[in-house]
Amino acid sequence: MAGNSIGQLFRLTTFGESHGPAIGGVLDGCPAGLKLDTAQIQSMLDRRKPGQSNLTTQRNEADRVELLSGLFEGVTTGHPIGLLIRNTNQKPKDYQDIARLYRPGHADYTYQHKYGLRDHRGGGRSSARETAVRVAAGAIAMQLLATEGIAIHACVEQIGEHKSSMPMNRINWRAVQANPLFFPDEDRIPAITKAIENARRDGDSLGAQILLVATGMPIGLGEPVFDRLEADLGKAMLSINASKAVSFGAGFDSVTQRGSQHRDAITPQGFTSNHSGGVLGGISTGQDLVLRVAFKPTSSITTPGDTLDLDGNPVKVVTRGRHDPCVGIRATPIVEAMAALVLVDHWLRNRTSRA
Amino acid sequence: MAGNSIGQLFRLTTFGESHGPAIGGVLDGCPAGLKLDTAQIQSMLDRRKPGQSNLTTQRNEADRVELLSGLFEGVTTGHPIGLLIRNTNQKPKDYQDIARLYRPGHADYTYQHKYGLRDHRGGGRSSARETAVRVAAGAIAMQLLATEGIAIHACVEQIGEHKSSMPMNRINWRAVQANPLFFPDEDRIPAITKAIENARRDGDSLGAQILLVATGMPIGLGEPVFDRLEADLGKAMLSINASKAVSFGAGFDSVTQRGSQHRDAITPQGFTSNHSGGVLGGISTGQDLVLRVAFKPTSSITTPGDTLDLDGNPVKVVTRGRHDPCVGIRATPIVEAMAALVLVDHWLRNRTSRA
Amino acid sequence: MAGNSIGQLFRLTTFGESHGPAIGGVLDGCPAGLKLDTAQIQSMLDRRKPGQSNLTTQRNEADRVELLSGLFEGVTTGHPIGLLIRNTNQKPKDYQDIARLYRPGHADYTYQHKYGLRDHRGGGRSSARETAVRVAAGAIAMQLLATEGIAIHACVEQIGEHKSSMPMNRINWRAVQANPLFFPDEDRIPAITKAIENARRDGDSLGAQILLVATGMPIGLGEPVFDRLEADLGKAMLSINASKAVSFGAGFDSVTQRGSQHRDAITPQGFTSNHSGGVLGGISTGQDLVLRVAFKPTSSITTPGDTLDLDGNPVKVVTRGRHDPCVGIRATPIVEAMAALVLVDHWLRNRTSRA
Amino acid sequence: MAGNSIGQLFRLTTFGESHGPAIGGVLDGCPAGLKLDTAQIQSMLDRRKPGQSNLTTQRNEADRVELLSGLFEGVTTGHPIGLLIRNTNQKPKDYQDIARLYRPGHADYTYQHKYGLRDHRGGGRSSARETAVRVAAGAIAMQLLATEGIAIHACVEQIGEHKSSMPMNRINWRAVQANPLFFPDEDRIPAITKAIENARRDGDSLGAQILLVATGMPIGLGEPVFDRLEADLGKAMLSINASKAVSFGAGFDSVTQRGSQHRDAITPQGFTSNHSGGVLGGISTGQDLVLRVAFKPTSSITTPGDTLDLDGNPVKVVTRGRHDPCVGIRATPIVEAMAALVLVDHWLRNRTSRA
What we know:
Four copies of one chain form a homotetramer.
Chain A: E1 5-6, E2 11-16, E3 22-28, H1 38-48, E4 65-67, E5 71-72, E6 75-76, E7 81-86, H2 108-115, H3 131-146, E8 151-159, E9 162-163, H4 173-178, H5 189-201, E10 208-215, H6 229-238, E11 243-248, H7 259-262, E12 266-267, E13 270-271, E14 279-280, E15 283-284, E16 289-295, E17 305-308, E18 314-317, H8 327-349
Helix pairs in contact in A: 1-3, 1-8, 3-8, 6-8
């Protein structure tokens, strides 16, 4: 109820602050009998990890996840899986400047007013570091989905003004995973890299848009009315730090479509288009699931900004620390993880649809 | 768990199909001591009601809501409020044609595969008629919010290619409520009316975009991490039939913003802009809450469409019945209702943030 | 969250007060494809109905349940089932005496202090009338369980000092259902009837103990740790008005047992005893489920009692109205209904235990 | 949903097996601003710890709890508190004998059938070791309750045939905490100690009954209908390993009471008796909360027992390992912890009862 859990039958609860002893969580509802590939979990965590290139933050977080329970001889037992990641590379001194002021565009202001106090170090609970636990849990979810033939892929479709022109069905997902920007058009990576470096040099940051595609979808995932698949996926995406919008299929473009154009015809060979994004009436159609998420440019920049201190006096703030100039890039595996968590939840829920 | 409830502390559960005896619901968690204005509830229901103009469906649904419980001498008692709306104007014959085929763009296909059977009459549970119960519950929520000085307003910001050019702070919400299109720019209503009539004449339909603004917001609504205010509002919006996307503040435009531009400066006089849409770190800032929802053009059109029958044979379908050419218009009070339900839920949740 | 729902995957939410227009509820999560026997639902409601003999209250409530949704051509659709029972035989005048005082042993005192107001007519939400909705929903649950071969039976094992001496395996459940006391030892019914009449004549009331046995149980229902089968069943039983205790298998007698005596040996022919009551580690063993519930003697008696009025002045209260001298008797079908609701919930939950 | 969480607004989720790397949990919903006494948490854990006397198990578990998050400078922040207790003193070899058979009276049989596999070492998830996390979380709950003047005390009221004759209002709770049996009648401790030693010598075990009393209760905790205070407390108690029954106030004795005797008169000086156990209509009356829990004699005894191996062959089992001859004794702080968790949950829930 305090908002640190997601999912109904497959439920992740997380805890931990950026500069406390550890972050972690509990994944409850993982069915028994899955042979777990722990290397894959670590590998997915590594994709999220900062410090991989000079385009992302220079923090060198180890992000070693420890699985504390729910496994016996490498197989899930049906019991909750405890997840633990120690915090090892904190530099709380970087944050002493902000102990008594509100960084604009951050949770400082709202946390302080809501709770009457806050752990200012690294943003405390509002730190993107919390998402590492989501990625670890999402990796387990992806292994469950793989047993059903469902695969989840995300890429960065746009960074600032640079928008991919790659058709969705021609994206090479393996190549996307290998490049540090998770961008589909390899030839444009040098230009985008330059743009990000320029933003950093300017003491500024860039927004990004993530595209997620799930293939191998069965028909029937999602519940009518309030827990429609888009509703639960949308919530999951909007729970990621810095996300500002989410769309399915034609998304906002459906506003200017006509009904005869938007509705996807059904033929013996399947649907002839996918404006719906793979969901009708809140339930998966078996087509690819297609969604997009917008990430704002981070407010952690070195350009001075106007704000207040705790006493209400106007001050200028410069966010030093170690920060990504484009947080959307690292959001890619997080978007995948959140989608995987929601799909497993609905896959389990769908087991109860018939008597 | 089967998806017919929304909210944690203020929780609406709905039931009912378009052509069954009634629709209704239970609103649980309404605090005791609210003097309820039942006329306002009916009035909000009337705004959603079809048949008000020739731009919306010609069904003449009475939509009389009966409050069955939870009130004593006109005041809420803290006990659940039972809501009942009898179905009175059904014409199931209109739907016999579609008993054995899947209307493209509808839930027919997914319901049939998920459950192995479906109530095809009027779409059954997938009918937009279900949203009448949400509007009745939302009206109660709005009365609770009013006691806190929070007001919720929505308008149709775009219909097809027709986009409002009215600045947000100049919208006359009272006038918006009075016009049948809920469109802010009164001088453009004749042209848009014409466009909708043309779409209907063409056997086609139009999409729409709704803007919602909540004023008088307190600081502190929303929970960190998974139940961020955007996450819960986003889910609520994406649970509305025909919605395809939701955005907050700058939304997808934040992709092309720079951090120095997006972050809203804080001064002794307040925030100097509202790119965040009134939420930071998942928690309300006290600024106006600003969100937008995209509604697809309805698939219930008279232009023949390709689809399959239950046996998998290709057939053409023409959706007769009585249908809005632009379902997004009537979504306006539904968007308001869903926002109100979420805000009351978080208003109650926020009472537990401090010891 | 306000406490008017029970169950996770099979979830009943109820509403309604004794003297409002109606009571009712929503049963969400009923799987699709069950051919529903509506006569059986009404028949189970009739068992709970007062006014059947002079041993129970003289109110003549019709208790006609209307199924408002979730059915198509007599078969469940997977969508929520709306339940409605109109209140038809209210005599609010009977309750005017108690509008401004707290009946001892009733919810009057706690409701008034919790909510600041209360619907005093017939106890409002605290009326046992609310349980009629549970019985209707429980009847649906029992039909689902029957498809799995699970049968649920309850009887009154003790009324006041009169305790059944019938061994559990010799109870004739059909005969129990037919007698107005639901008591297994037919030869003792005249004596107990006399005792109840005496209690009523004395302006007093009797307590009762209910025994519930579920046969045909599968292995595997119940979740470890917090949602053990006993925990969820225990909660369901203790949610019934006037219940004060619940026990499983040997129950409180296990305090004086030795481990060598209590533990049920397992042999190729099955368990050799059932001190566990059919549950080990919170999960059903396949043996009969055995539980007992204690019901206090009702406080609605004509013997004057000491209490306070709303202003804190001492007054005497005599509860007139129409009341059972032994409310435990009518609790029998309610205990069955609550057990059925819990078992269906865990039957559905158990579908997700393996990958 | 997989049953490893309890509470709505104040919610504990636990993980961990007896012989895995660690047990732990997440306590979500702890309000901000509580100055936490960590020594008190450890002290309450120490009360539950085995190996304190020769009457309880000889395992020497360190049970050092680490608080991983949710605290800043010793004060709760409103964010989830991560709890971790490393397993340090495992002797898995003790359990190799039971890898391929079902100990009678244990979860072995049901876990194996439910999940298709099990971690047999020390009972895995069914080990009472899991309750250490509950005690740590309960200690935090007790600190919150203390700020409201609510105190929780439990004692062992009966061990086997030895029943305390101490009137409830004369129990010296401080003395109870100090004695290794948590028994109120100090003069009888030698005799009971002897009885327990005899049981152990006989290769057998004893049951126990715990009495819990909460003082300083406010009026208004508990929700009507399904989440009555007894229902939620009853569930919490029945979720403890080896519990078989729970009662409130007069409990099963209310079956033989008359209404004129059971109902507690209300006078200007307060209630004149407490047969209700401090709850009316599911809501606390302000009187002391009184409940009792029965704990079965453990099945982990050295007397050989009949059972089956995984292949269905009959075998004899002798449970060696290190086990308490009376597990009910150590349940005392667990009963306190579970009561505290439920009361805090309802204390927070009650903040939303009025508009």
